Amino acid sequence: MIAALDLGLIYALMALGVYLTFRILDFADLTIDSSFTTGAGTTAIALLSGWNPWAATVAGALVGIIAGLITGLLNTVGKIHPLLAGILTQIGLYSINLRIMGKANVPLLRSETVFTPLRNNHLLGTITSVGILLFVVAVFCTVLIWFLNTHLGLALRATGDNEEMARAQGINTDMTKLVGLALSNALVALSGSLFAQYQGFADISMGIGLIVAGLASVIIGTAVVPTSRVWVAVIAVVGGSIAYRLIIQAALMIPWFDPNDMKLLSALIVVVALLAPRSKAFMSVRKSNQPKSEFSSVQPWDTADAEELDSGDTRPASKQVTSPQRKGGK
């Protein structure tokens, strides 16, 4: 279970990237399935070439920025649908990843990595490694929360909430999309870089289906802790990533469970995370924690409808806040 905590914290960086595009920017980015491998493969080749482990890790994150920019340019300049832009980049990166790695699997058993001091002292997979990774994730969470409260971060959030309104307010939404996608894929590639160094290899298939894990982490976190506050949501996403890994680890400990069923289990976890907030018990707990509204006919701001629950967005659309009388012009 301690190793699951390590992996949950490493994957938390990937989940933060998915949160940035899926929840903040409202952009369904499938690039991460390949940018994760791009970060891992670039770091692996750099380490085998004798690079310093920290420099190789930074290089892995930088290629993620390039991957995100490609998807962003396809969408903003090429006017390609976000979903298709992500798929095109993802497919193209598969061949590029093979070019970078030279083969489908690159072992790092004799290479020095950022985890080598911990591994040599038998501290990997212990409370010590969990504490160090938790500190690293906390630093990235703090920087991300700070960024989302800067002018650029607020512009990025406005683009995700209402792109047309943001553009009417003078925000360059194309630029905010490029920044958001670049940062998101940088976090995903950094997660892939650390994962490859932790596991001791980089594999061409290690990112396939990763979007499901990322969405599961985001949805679990936002479903359990519904909030419109960014700092709470960021922490909830990290908690969702850890919870997801613990669930996977618990399933692997079941004797009859086949590791080939992992994808099915991931899909079931996402389905449960989507349906759980609609249960009467969950809704009653949330309702009991909400303050009484003065206007009973008005939908509370922090109450989500079915469509918002599916998307993981617990904030209702602004048009639904208007009372029925005002809609009729009375």
UniProtKB/TrEMBL annotation:
CDD domains on file: TM_PBP1_branched-chain-AA_like
Biased composition (Polar residues): 287-300, 317-330
Topology versus the membrane: Multi-pass membrane protein
Pfam families, per database record: BPD_transp_2
Keywords assigned: Cell membrane, Membrane, Transmembrane, Transmembrane helix
Source species: Arcanobacterium wilhelmae
Lineage per the UniProt record: Bacteria, Bacillati, Actinomycetota, Actinomycetes, Actinomycetales
Spans annotated as Disordered: 287-330
Localization (cell): Cell membrane
InterPro entries given in the database record: ABC_transp_permease (IPR001851)
Lineage top rank: taxon: Bacteria
Full protein name: ABC transport system permease protein
Ranges that cross the membrane: 7-25, 54-76, 83-102, 122-148, 178-198, 204-225, 230-252, 264-283
